[in-house]
Amino acid sequence: MKTMTCEELGGACGLEFQAETFEEIADMSMKHGMEMFLKADGPHLEAMEEMKAMRAAGDVNEWMEQKRAEFGELPEDY
Predict the structure, then answer these.
(1) What pLDDT score was predicted for residue 26?
(2) Distance of CA 65 to the CA centre of its chain
(3) In-domain check, residue 78
């Protein structure tokens, strides 16, 4: 089990996600983002705009691989 925060995953808060794989943690982050979108949370909406710009520039795949590598380097939670 490893832990990453919303902010570490491109979001706007310190909410922690714990998962065995990067894919699981990315899914948790996306669900949290949807909740924050529905709540019209300003800081999260700003973070989403930054991600949207990254996608438009074609940089999102490189960013995802970097985050996947960061997850891989994290120590296991005990």
Answers:
(1) 94
(2) 12
(3) no
